[in-house]
Amino acid sequence: MMKVALYDAREESNSHKVLMEFFVGEKNPILISVPPGVYHGFKGIGTQTAYFLSIPTRPYNYDEPDEYRLPPDTNEIPYDWGLTPGLKHG
Hints:
Elements: E1 2-8, E2 19-24, E3 38-44
């Protein structure tokens, strides 16, 4: 099992600032389509290996990146990954 969280940071979106959380795994296999501008992350929460397959629609452009990353514990996204205090991500 894994927990997948999405946060819509797109100011023009009808779902701006909406946070979604999914629990995905063998008993709940789902396909998640993540639009550009929606931050997303995942965390394994089961005892078995979990796989997250990302299929971008176009190759990454190093000169003009269209992917932006924030640390999992950023204050810009109102989500708590539930780590033990003092434990670092990644």
